[in-house]
């Protein structure tokens, strides 16, 4: 297809798909690929940035997260899949028939929903604001699905806002499984304040809280503090975590387990300080 003959909306959609697939791109490469001028490319990238799909940097654009930018859900769905699966495999061992559990709108906890589709843990009540998880579990026998409503946010594929927080506050679940964008210095962080308020409400609605973090998040920063790590009964991290990162968790007396991904499975999970 001749991209130069596309309208701006179709070209921008194709450009977003390309950047989400590759992670980042330079403006010059995109101009050559789509057969338009650099000025046109920068206008397109300004629009994609305004929509929150990508962020611009000098000479290019990226879909990767920063301290103030949470990646689009379509990008996050593609990243760290093996690590997220290892974390979910361990998390599922904490779920028992008859429980009510809550899943946040992270692609990490989405792997728990994928595991629940096997139908081996029923009956079960699952509460979530994540449309991806709702779609996965909507037709699952033995699972009572409670969808949290609110303002739909297409960049996160989830329901957020005051009405979502108020719905959560009316509930009490056995376990809440959540993830955040960054963990550092004894706190969990996230880039976006409206996500923080929903996560805090979820943590307040559970008898037990479990944080699932792939190792890349131990080296990141994000703008807003969510909660101290002491709010979690258990932190699960994959075995890509560095010794320095694990020492930081030990120093803050965080109870954690290191989960082996399929590529390295064979040894025992290591348990951290309680």
From TrEMBL:
GO terms for molecular function: DNA binding. This is DeoR/GlpR family DNA-binding transcription regulator. SUPFAM superfamilies: NagB/RpiA/CoA transferase-like (SSF100950), Winged helix' DNA-binding domain (SSF46785). Residues 8-63 form the HTH deoR-type domain. Gene3D superfamilies: Winged helix-like DNA-binding domain superfamily/Winged helix DNA-binding domain. Transmembrane segments: none annotated. It comes from the Bacteria. Keywords: DNA-binding, Transcription, Transcription regulation.
